[in-house]
Structure formats: structure tokens, C-alpha cells
Write a structure and sequence with these properties.
Family: Belongs to the tetrahydrofolate dehydrogenase/cyclohydrolase family.
Radius of gyration: 19 Å
Largest sheet: 6 strands, parallel
CATH topology of the largest domain: Rossmann fold
Number of domains: 2
CATH architecture of the largest domain: 3-Layer(aba) Sandwich
Distance between the termini: 50 Å
Pfam families: THF_DHG_CYH (PF00763), THF_DHG_CYH_C (PF02882)
Oligomer: single chain
Helix content: 25-40%
Pathway: One-carbon metabolism; tetrahydrofolate interconversion
EC number: 1.5.1.5, 3.5.4.9
Structural class: alpha/beta
Strand order of the largest sheet: 1-9-8-7-5-6
CATH superfamily of the largest domain: NAD(P)-binding Rossmann-like Domain
Shape: globular
Subunit structure: Homodimer.
Number of helices: 9
Strand content: 5-15%
Length: 280
Amino acid sequence: MSAQVLDGKLLAKNREQLLKVAVDQLIAQGGRKPALATILVGDDPSSATYVQMKINACERVGMGSKSIILPAKTTTEELLTEITRLNNDPEINGILLQHPVPEQIDERACFDAISLEKDVDGVTTQGFGRMAMGEKAFGSATPAGIMTLLKHYDVQMEGKHAVVVGRSPILGKPMAAMLLNANATVTVCHSRTVDLAQQVQKADIVIGAVGKPELIKAQWINDGAVVIDAGYHVGGVGDIEKQGLETRVSAMTPVPGGVGPMTINALISQTLKAAQLASL
């Protein structure tokens, strides 16, 4: 058996073509050019790279972007002031606060200050609650991108046992909620889980969302399982050890080129949706 490659890079590229058509149509109908504001606090090079990738994606589909770079010593109050200004700017449809922020900043307070209508990265408590309850809200970008990828490749989720390794508020927890809403049976594992290997062995779908290189071992994973790796670390490895999986599992994401491009695609897709809603 050869595993199907869940190619997020290719899917994102194809979806960008459709997004560009939709952006052009919105503008032609008299709507404002959709625009995403990105906020980067500090000078972490990895964060700066991620923000630039999102700005580049906006440009490719004809959307506008506004880059805001704040010094590492920025306070919570100063960041909240900037977010409030963007909330009140009619030319901005989406706000992305790049994670993580410096330790002196109350990140949760700043995330929750983003207006629900502009929470295109799906980071607010209110947005998470609405999404989990099956109400309209923008989903957290990485889980939303993963769901789009699974649906595109017709991966069956209903009735399947999904194991999510990781419980962060912007990845593991919303991923579990989205899978539950798709009628999967979901187990969430974390640093206090007893016998992680045994839990992973039960999975039809394994989601690596823990942020530790190759924590999840290939030998734990069932033959025929679907493997989604949301991690990316130095050396081009993910959260899941891949050696030998390509001949045993039914489908898997590459690292890189799987989840990452779909995260960005979800972000710009939701920014367009916010612009469309604002034009009604």
C-alpha cells in the first residue's frame, strides 16, 4: 500500500485561483478591496517569516494588507490600543495577531479584544465558543485548513476515531471541536496523558498538534490510518515520526507542504468572507 499524499500546497494554490476570482468580483460589484492587518510584536525571525508569507498570499489573490510591527517592549495596553484602532478601521476586514507575543503581554486579553467580525484567524474565546456550538464563526486557521484538506480528499470523518495530540487553544482544542462537529469520536491527548502510545494506537485519524519534534512515533500508528501533521521544526520534521508510514497508512500530509499552506489559505479565505459580509 502506498499512502495518498494530502497535498496542502497544491490545494492551496488551486484555491487561491478561485479566491482571486471572488476578490475581483467583489471589487467589480462596488465592494471594498478586502484587507488583512497583521500585527507582529518583537523581532523573532520565524514569526516575521510567517507574517510575510501571509502578506504574500494576500497579494497573490488581489487582497490588500497592512503590516504593523511593534517593538518587543510593547505593553498589553499599547497592543490593545492598536487592536481597537484596527477594529474601528472600515478598510480592514481581518486582524491577525502573530503568536506568540512577548511574555509581558497578556496574549489572551489581546486575542479577545479582536472584534468577532474581524477574527479571521479564529483566536477569540467568543469565536471558539460559537464554532464549538455549531454556530457561525471563523474557525481557528490551522484546524479550519485541516478540515478543508480532509474534505477535499474525501477523508471519512463521521464515525471514525480521531486522536488529537495537543490541546492548545488555537490548534488542539478547536481541532477537536471541529472533528466532533463532523461526527467523529474524538480523544484529546496532552502532557498528562497516561500511555500516549496506547491512545494513538486506537486512532483512525491521528492529528499531531503538540509542537514537539517527532513526539508521536510511527510504530504507534495503525495500518490504514490517516495521518495529519500540523508540526514543523528545524530540519523539516513534524510532530509525527514518518519513517515507514508511507507504506502502511492510507493517507498522510507531507512536512512541509501539507498543513502549513492550508493554514494561510484558511486565513485569507476567511478574510474574503469577512469582506463579503461587510459589503452586504
